[in-house]
């Protein structure tokens, strides 16, 4: 009896993780975590869970945020968190520019794109959505009325710029490490996902403690950055993969003229 063809299994698996799965089915399977984030954001904003959670960080008798001036919320999570995102961005840019394996350079470029585009879109959203921060509201000792997320503010009301959450977007941009690990080191992908999500949640928690954001703001930030990382993976994925038939993708920039031409029959 002849041995089975070893190449048959990979070819079958490339068609989809599940037998008979369509292209639409694969795309929906990849997007369901983002759908859950979207539902969580809507639930937090429409059921007043935002207010209930944020109330726990505010001392209504003393009229101040319990940890608003704490070293861990301001110095460690806020200032230190910004420095961490900058450091990872610089390291990723260095990996993209420094001569070496083509797949490593594309991986660095992918991470740079995630770090710039995800928080960049969040920043644009903050300017467009006109949503106030908790610490600006009369409920927490200031002068602005609370307006639910999906309702219009009254005419003449001061503009807000707090939705989605900006600080946590820097950490949620690291969700790109998850997609990168799926292409290069699949066994490390769950660890990368947990690490990025945990870091983003930590950044978010620090902002809640300071009265800077409601939980729904940071869930929206995770949704934006996760969508960006997933969308960029569609382009960068084949270029960063170490298992795509053992063939390096083309280098960024113009083609090299000193490569030997293909042989013809």
What is the residue-mean pLDDT, rounded to a whole number? 86
The SS-based structural class is mainly alpha
What's the architecture, going by CATH? Answer: Up-down Bundle
Low-confidence region ranges: 6-16, 245-249, 255-265
Helical coverage, percent range: 55-70%
Rg, alpha carbons: 23 Å
The number of distinct structural domains comes to: 1
Strand order of the largest sheet: 1-2
CATH class: Mainly Alpha
Order of helices and strands: HHHEEHHHHHH
The count of β-strands is 2
CATH topology: Vanadium-containing Chloroperoxidase, domain 1
Form type = elongated
Compute the separation of the termini in Å. 35 Å
Summarize the structure.
With 265 residues, the chain is mainly α.
Write the layout of secondary structure elements.
Elements: H1 8-14, H2 23-46, H3 49-55, E1 58-59, E2 64-65, H4 71-97, H5 102-129, H6 166-172, H7 176-184, H8 189-209, H9 215-240
Antiparallel strand pairs: 1-2
Please characterize this protein's 3D structure.
- By secondary structure, this protein is mostly helical.
- It has one domain: Vanadium-containing Chloroperoxidase, domain 1 (Up-down Bundle), CATH 1.20.144.
- It is built from nine helices and two strands, in the order αααββαααααα.
- A two-stranded antiparallel ribbon has the order 1-2.
- Helix 2 (23-46) packs antiparallel against helix 9 (215-240) and helix 5 packs antiparallel against helix 9.
- The protein starts with 7 loop residues before the first helix and ends in a 25-residue tail after the last helix.
- Residues 6-16, 245-249 and 255-265 have low confidence and may be disordered.
């Amino acid at each position: 009896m002849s041995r089975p063809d070893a190449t048959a299994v990979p070819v079958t698996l490339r068609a989809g993780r599940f037998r008979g799965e369509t292209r639409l089915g694969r795309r929906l399977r990849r997007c369901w975590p983002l759908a859950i984030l979207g539902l969580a954001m809507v639930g937090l904003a429409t059921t007043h869970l935002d207010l209930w959670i944020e109330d726990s960080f505010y001392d209504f008798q003393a009229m101040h945020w319990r940890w608003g001036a704490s070293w861990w919320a301001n110095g460690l999570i806020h200032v230190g968190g910004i420095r961490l995102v900058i450091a990872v961005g610089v390291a990723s840019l260095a990996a993209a520019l420094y001569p070496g394996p083509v797949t490593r350079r594309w991986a660095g470029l992918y991470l740079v794109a995630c770090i710039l585009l995800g928080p960049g879109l969040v920043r644009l959203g903050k300017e467009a959505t006109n949503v106030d921060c908790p610490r600006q509201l009369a409920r927490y000792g200031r002068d602005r009325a609370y307006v639910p997320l999906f309702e219009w503010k009254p005419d003449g009301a001061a503009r807000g710029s707090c939705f989605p959450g900006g600080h946590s977007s820097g950490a949620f941009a690291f969700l790109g490490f998850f997609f990168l690990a799926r292409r290069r080191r699949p066994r490390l992908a769950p660890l990368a996902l947990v690490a990025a999500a945990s870091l983003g949640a930590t950044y978010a928690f620090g902002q809640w403690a300071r009265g800077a954001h409601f939980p729904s703001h940071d869930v929206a930030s995770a949704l934006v950055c996760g969508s960006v990382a997933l969308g960029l993976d569609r382009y960068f994925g084949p270029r960063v993969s170490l298992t795509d038939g053992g063939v390096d993708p083309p280098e960024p920039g113009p083609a090299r003229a000193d490569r030997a031409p293909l042989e013809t029959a």
